[in-house]
Design brief:
The complex is a heterodimer. Chain A is mainly α. Chain A has 10 helices and no strands. The longest helix of chain A is centred in the middle third of the chain and has 35 residues. Chain A is globular, with a radius of gyration of 19 Å. In chain B, helix 4 crosses helix 11 and helix 6 packs across helix 11. Chain B folds into 2 domains: 181 residues, Glutamyl-tRNA reductase, N-terminal domain (Beta Polymerase, domain 2, 2-Layer Sandwich); 144 residues, Rossmann fold (3-Layer(aba) Sandwich), CATH 3.40.50.720. By secondary structure, chain B is α/β, with parallel strands linked by helices. The chains are: A mainly alpha, B alpha/beta. Chains A and B meet through helix 6, helix 7, helix 8 and helix 10 of A and helix 7 and helix 11 of B.
Amino acid sequence: MAVALYGASLVYSVFLWRRGFRQDDRVNYCLLLAAFLFHFLAMWKRGVSFQRCPVHNLYEASLFIGWSIMLALLVLGLMPRLRFLGVFASPILFGLGVFGLMPMLDQVHSEPLAAKGTALSLHAALTLLAYGAFGLGAVAGAMFLVQEKDLKQHKARAVLSLLPPIQRLEAVVKWQILAGLALLSAGLLVGILWVPAPSGYSIRGDFKVLWSVFVWLMYAALLGLHLGFAQRGRRFAWGAVSGFLFILLTFWGANLASPLHSP
Amino acid sequence: MSSVVVIGLSHRTAPVELRERFAIGEAKLGAALGALRESGLAREAVIVSTCNRVEIYLATDQDPPAAFAGLRRFLSNFAGHDGALEAEAYTLAEPQSLRHLFKVACGLDSMVLGETEVLGQLKQAYEAAVKHHATGPKLNRAFQRAFNAAKHVRTHTQIQRGSVSVASVAVELAEKIFSSLEDRQVLVIGAGDTSEKAARALLSRGARSIIVANRSHERAVALARELGGRAVTFDDWFKEFVAVDIVISSTSAPHYILDRQKLEPVMAARENRSLLLVDLAVPRDIDPAVNFLENIYLYNVDDLQTIADDYLRQRREEVARCDAIIEEKLRDLMESAARRPNPPDNRPALEQPS
């Protein structure tokens, strides 16, 4: 049901785009809100039935990333102009939903990993929330790129649309990346300090661990260049979009290549 | 039974030289309503006098042709005008008079389509008439419904969206780049009329300060004083570029005064903060190649005019929707008037103010 509503939001988003973002985005916001409620209900029921946070396989990870993007989106959407973030987020949310529903993703882990309890759940939840924050940063970055291109090319849509100013979008990108980095740092620390590797496994040299460190370094470099070396505007937005594209395209592969995360 | 009629001169029918002769200011309003009273033309009256129109709305017992003849005489006598006002003054009887009132309230009859100032002026005119005890059930109902229709049109259509002047489009552009105009520094190069208007508009939206540079330093100082900013000599304006966010240029220089080579090093010193350049000069002051630099947004006068025209076209597209709302509201008014006809009014035409 949630995926269908994300799909409806995607269709409506195309309509809003073609209309030049000239009308308030309340309908899309309501569609996404309804989708979020179903999404939350599904995750909650799953969490209750398995007695743990639903973040333990690729299906759950996909849903959790989508859920965390939606949560941040609904909060930011309280500001009317930032509601249009939903237009740019709905393709990602629909894509994540469809991907999550693919067969073979929803596999139950072997006992040793699933038994790690709270620390493992916290580690997974924090890192997936971080990817959600990076996702919303990418959405704001995409919105920045559209608005900036319209302004550069003197398109009337730049002024006629109800999109927010590009400086505000850049701030959203910055804060989302900051939040994502903080969450990812916390998630990695929890994983390293409180989630011991099962016997026969090691975190050293594990592909997913290396991948996560690379993602952390990539976003830290992006933020460092932005804050310390005045890499602003289009470059920063492209960095946020490219960073999340990298995560989207490699997350599942990194999981599958990691014996520790995909035993 | 009384009906609502209107006689008027507006920007559509009469030049400003004629309109100004018929203008009825606040000081003369009481006398005008008194004169109407003495003429026996009206049971109720509201006089609207703005820079673009002079209109008298009457609730009268007379037949419209007789009322119009009387109103023409009244207008000519009151303004001391010799002509007959045949072509310049328009006259409308119900329901066209009410439809016209609704259109005026919605800004559809304004020089700038969809502008909102006229609604405030209409409300002031109505309140002044109420103060002079010149209104009654007929005009009260008509004006209240007109205000209601204007509110409905404003919230349900886009007739009032966007700016249709070059100066205000420049401000809108700035608001699409910067989160807030507060704390923004504006540099005005060349103290032209449009650049002054744009600077004033930016100030009214919260811009922090204005720096003015002009070939005539005295003119720069005078404008800076007027705008609460500071003046710099024309040779020094480029030194301000590191700190400013918005530049409005309108010099009479025959060549570019700002190009890519000049700006590239400045952008590094500015730490690539966004810069809006508004080039209002013809010939242009700023090399168009500057727009290829990152974080710089350059608009010339044609770009701004194109956006203003787009807004106007968008407003024109909304007129049909506004007309539909007006027709609906007008039908409601006519039906409610038919259901609840005004009680017989035995007052003398226009009560004396107490």
